[in-house]
Amino acid sequence: MGNCCSDVAGGQSAVGGTASYHTSSAVNAPNEAVEAFLKSRGYQGLYSQIELSLSASNLRDRDVLSKSDPMAVLYIKGRDGSLQELGRTEVVLNSLNPKWIRKYILTYQFETVQYLVFRIYDVDTQFHNIDVKVLKLEEQQFLGEATCALSQIVTKSNRSLSLDLGHGEAFSGPAHTRKFGQLTVYAEESVASKTTTELILRCSDLESKDLFSKSDPFLVISKLTETGVAVPICKTEVLKNDHSPKWKPIFLNIQLVGSKDSPLTIECFDFNSNGKHDLIGKVQKSLADLEKLHSIGMGENLFIPVSVGQNHQSKVLKSQLFVDTYSEKIQYTFLDYLAGGYELNFMVAIDFTASNGNSRLPDSLHYIDPSGRPNAYQRAILEVGGVLQFYDSDKKFPAWGFGARPIDGPVSHCFNLNGSSNYCEVDGIQGIMTAYTSALFNVSLAGPTLFGHVVTSAAFIASQSVANNERKYFILLIITDGVITDLQETKDALVSASDLPLSILIIGVGGADFKEMEILDADKGERLESSTGRVASRDIVQFVPFRDAQSGDFSIVQFTFSRTAFPIFSIHESQSKKYM
């Protein structure tokens, strides 16, 4: 084990597979390998392993004496518009209605719009004995193309989306009026990524490796790769002076292990503070084997490798490993809630206070650039709304402004962005953008900066949804350039709203001092308290300075997740049953 436990205090603690590790992984990381990769780059978010299946109907027949031999190719579109090929199906012979067997495995990420492009080709007979991976697509006949966001698929109740095949932007030539057929995409979340095994292990009659005391045993569980290399996946705590140890529960994600039948090596070591731990013995069993040991109530003898001349043998010990508890549990994910009919509803509130500067001047935060380059407010709306719009079925978004004086009226701290006095909703993200631009020409920037009114308006909509037993969760985006002047009133509104299915994302634009915003964002553990002494039931606010999000490679939404788990995914279990 080298020096993996050389830190005496930390080295005696369990690593991986603990209850806390299991809980955090269940909320944010059904795929722990992906989690490790992304977190190594300072990123944490909400993602799941997705398997895509494809079928098509009414494809064009490009062959003279037989039907087409279709193959599908999947691409993902980058932020710069470039396409990266993710995989190819097999070739289905003589079929205009193929159902491909080969699947695509993708990592779904909530906070990223993942645009997929599907292209269908008729593979010529002369290439049928060639691996599809090396086929030159330009030598095949193009049958059609379809595109969609992965979010569009997973938000369907049956996770199935039918798309009309078209000519495709990449293929020049005159437009075709005839139909190219349909492509159906079905998404299925990996069950293994959601299934966690709980184990309680103990040993009996361990041998002493210390001269004057009993051993200090701990277990290391490793999975075996195809090449036979052991990769550690978790370690138990160290139990002092114990030859019949029983360790705390271990939680293993089946996808992390590989499968229930994948071989595992369970090694028992005697802890030494110098990091050179002595092997007491080990067993090699799969999860299925451990389940069987538990069901029959029998132990498995440990063994230790020994060398006899040139031969490597195993010495069986009287020490035994027992499985006192074996259980499996499925952790429901965000996608499960979507499949159950839940949806997210997007709301936005925009700061129209005078500190933003005259919107007609280029140095204003509200300046509308004739070149089409979005200002900070527009970019925040596009990036956040661009992600959330797929999870809102009707795409009618409440939109407000605050801190401005409408024509011939007093300063308003919550006015409908569309100019209506009766309703606050606009149609789609483009509707928000149009209403925002129009409002700049119909109101006078004023002040002060107050949040309480818009928070109360959003909370009222959320409370009505609860009263109507709707399966909705609301996310309010507040974009502001300055420090609020109604801090306590805003705290009161947030504490009152903390029991509702509502989360609030505040984006600070410009160069102001946003220290008071950090107070509203209770990431440091101290929850907000109202003027009456009531403490918020949960943290519903996340604050992100726009300038910090601009400095990295992530979008605003991704940057939000890189700082902390967004409050929508930190609801207590009892609340999640009500809301998510």
UniProtKB/TrEMBL annotation:
It is a lipid-anchor. InterPro entries: C2_dom, C2_domain_sf, C2B_Copine, Copine, Copine_C, VWF_A, vWFA_dom_sf. SMART domains: C2, VWA. It is found in: Cell membrane. Keywords: Calcium, Cell membrane, Lipoprotein, Membrane, Metal-binding, Plant defense, Repeat. GO terms for biological process: defense response. The keyword Calcium applies. Residues 30-163, 179-303 form the C2 domain. GO terms for molecular function: metal ion binding. One of its GO terms (cellular component) is plasma membrane. Pfam families: C2, Copine. CDD domains: C2A_Copine, C2B_Copine, vWA_copine_like. Belongs to the copine family. This is DCD (Development and Cell Death) domain protein. It comes from Forsythia ovata. The lineage of its organism: Eukaryota, Viridiplantae, Streptophyta, Embryophyta, Tracheophyta.
